[in-house]
Amino acid sequence: MFDALDTELMARALRLARNGLYNTDPNPAVGCVLAQGAEIVAEGWTEPAGGPHAEKVALAAAERRAAGATAYVSLEPCCHVGRTGPCTEALIGARVSRVVCAALDPNPLVRGQGVERLRAAGIAVEVGLLESAARELNCGFFSRMSRGRPWVRSKIAASLDGRTALANGSSQWITSAAARADVHRWRARSSAILTGIDTVLADDPSLNARAEDLQLPVDQPVRVVIDSRLRFPATARMLRLEGAVIVFTTREDTGARQALMAAGATVEHVAGGDRCDLRSVLARLAELQINDIWVEAGKALNGALLGEGLIDELVLYLAPKVLGDAARGMFALGVLDSLDAAIELELDDVRQVGPDLRIIARPSTVSGAAR
Ligand SMILES: NC(=O)c1ccc[n+]([C@@H]2O[C@H](COP(=O)([O-])OP(=O)(O)OC[C@H]3O[C@@H](n4cnc5c(N)ncnc54)[C@H](OP(=O)(O)O)[C@@H]3O)[C@@H](O)[C@H]2O)c1
User: How far apart are CA 164 and CA 169, in angstroms?
Assistant: First the structure.
């Protein structure tokens, strides 16, 4: 069904899609290549939300050379009228003869209907080329659409013996400048950065994306703080920086809420009693069109998220130093009585970043369908 040329051109569409990773939220980042045989006539990727989708960018560049071409698109073309007109109609109008999609769009407004519309117009459509890479690239969008919750990545900077902060709370900086620059690129591609109130109280972090080396327009991620008792200080640094701040609480305390709102935060009430119910937090964030979350929290929140099976991916930076067992660990979890109860992980990527080691690992339970 697909030949080597198809694979090469779809791989190119996927590479182009990566250019949109930092600014298409809440839309997926998509790439498109228009080719007449082996000759590429035009290409494009999704512009920031509200701008044209990848197909339209490529069609505009191709002009009349789109007629009879094959369109390689990393996600099924949309068929609904969103902020921009349907891409299916643009492809039909330009008289392309074949469309190859890497994956169907999981959005219930599309999900196979884009393909049907193209076929009904007499265009040959094939689906599934490099599908897992396409789903991986937009795992947040797939997760939000198929599971009703964002993709959750937790970053932890630690010593080689797995310690994230000294007993006195000091943690800046365990890892190198190179690792921290890598973190800023991850922050920049995330819809939101999530932390626990105790990290805010200990570090007063900015939690923004400072990724000057990217040389791409970056939308600042939303900062999310889990704070059952509304201890968040209205003077926190992050409130003075560009980008939205959402504080989740279980409290009704109107005085504290009003002070925070006056300081620029949005306060969301969530179920939970003593502690914010983390599943409800994630469901609410999906409603707010948050595709993927980058967690930078301490062992309490990381332990709760991991223990509840809510972490999809761990991004661990391990500095070649030892802090000893009086320093704090990565996850506050209950005592295990058996090794069978261990949370099993699968390594996805291991590399050196500056002097540090970066390990990306996924709990074995994370379903492939989420991405
Ligand atoms: N090395 C790293 O990568 C890294 C990254 C970030 C932070 N840190 C360090 O971590 C330390 C802070 O860590 P921490 O463990 O004390 O705090 P944390 O994980 O940042 O925040 C924990 C707080 O979140 C609130 N929370 C609300 N709902 C919760 C739930 N369902 N489960 C768990 N917590 C919930 C709780 O306070 P309420 O009950 O009041 O809501 C809890 O005390 C600091 O020293 C900081 O420097 C290290």
Answer: 9
